[in-house]
Specification:
It is a single chain. The protein has helices at about 20-30, 40-50, 65-80, 100-125, 150-170, 205-215, 230-240, 240-250, 265-275, 275-285; strands spanning about 10-15, 35-40, 55-60, 85, 135-140, 175-185, 220-225. By secondary structure, the protein is of the alpha/beta class. It has a single domain (about 10-285), classed as NAD(P)-binding Rossmann-like Domain (Rossmann fold, 3-Layer(aba) Sandwich), CATH 3.40.50. The longest helix is centred in the middle third of the chain and has 26 residues, at about 100-125. The chain is globular, with a radius of gyration of 18 Å.
Length: about 280
């Protein structure tokens, strides 16, 4: 089973729904003390209430870096030193690149990337002096390839992969682990309106949660979900670019985000658009 997670203080950003909620549930069942941070406090509290005494819900806007730090301070006041930080909060607005509003671009950069940078830095400051800890950054299969229809999303997830690689190397030998999780299509609100590509099988958020639990118990850096994607991505990297792009077209992977059913995504896109209040205040949006 590897490392025990019982009693560990584990923070999950964006933990009220989807992958975050499934991960909180899996960790609470193993005896971890889980702190769920989310912009939607009511939903976060409902999730924590379902999990019982091993879960705590606190308000968190990851785009407000001062309050993000204060959130982590509050977790440590209530639960003790943070053993694991899971940077899970993220949004995926879709559409042609040239039609993307600058505000939408800014939201993705703030939530998907800058918040991960800030959270990772804060975790390092807290964990490195103790020579113990684990940072898990949730990226995406889109962090390893470009998918038309989600250009900025892909850019942010590529950046999360690069950040995680660099920080992992800086922390080598310190006792602090870094992992990056790369899910494909996960059946959550974020993936509403997507159809499956021929080689990408969709999974439930519980599958991602299970992969996260396993890497916390037996640390590894790169975690694809489903695991079958590991070989696919490494194989295509060995091919010349033209050949790799031909494979992507043949498997219709290039249509995965581009052909999303936007009418089905209306509610999600509206919630994503309202998910960075601190960033909007700073820009006057």
């Amino acid at each position: 089973m590897g490392r025990s997670l019982a009693g560990k203080v584990i923070v999950i950003t964006g933990g009220a729904r989807g992958i975050g909620a499934a991960t909180a549930s899996a960790l609470a069942r193993l005896g971890a003390q889980v702190a769920i941070g989310d912009l939607d406090l009511d939903v976060a509290k409902a999730t924590a209430d379902e999990l019982g005494e091993n879960a705590t819900a606190l308000p968190l806007d990851v785009t407000d870096r001062v309050r993000f730090t204060e959130f982590l301070d509050e977790v440590e006041r209530q639960l003790g030193p943070i053993d694991v930080l899971i940077n899970n909060a993220g949004i995926m607005p879709l559409g042609p690149f040239e039609d993307e509003a600058d505000r939408t671009t800014g939201h993705q950069l703030e939530i998907n990337l800058h918040a991960v940078i800030h959270g990772t830095r804060e975790a390092v400051k807290r964990m490195r002096p103790r020579a113990s800890g684990h940072i898990v950054n949730i990226a995406s299969a889109a962090g390893k390839a470009g998918f038309p229809g989600g250009a900025t999303y892909c850019a942010t997830k590529h950046a999360v992969v690069g950040l995680s690689e660099a920080v992992r190397m800086e922390l080598r030998g310190t006792g602090v682990d870094v992992s990056v999780v790369l899910p494909a299509i996960v059946r959550t609100e974020l993936a509403t309106g997507l159809t499956e590509a021929r080689f990408i099988k969709s999974v439930g958020p519980e599958a991602v949660a299970d992969a996260i639990v396993k890497t916390l118990q037996s640390p590894k850096f790169e975690v694809f979900v489903p695991r079958s994607l590991t070989g696919t991505f490494y194989l295509t990297r060995l091919l010349p670019r033209r050949a790799a792009e031909w494979v992507a077209r043949a498997l219709k992977a290039d249509q995965l985000l581009l052909n999303a059913e936007h009418s089905a995504r209306t509610a999600y896109e509206a919630r994503a658009e309202a998910s960075a209040p601190a960033a909007d205040r700073e820009t006057g949006a």
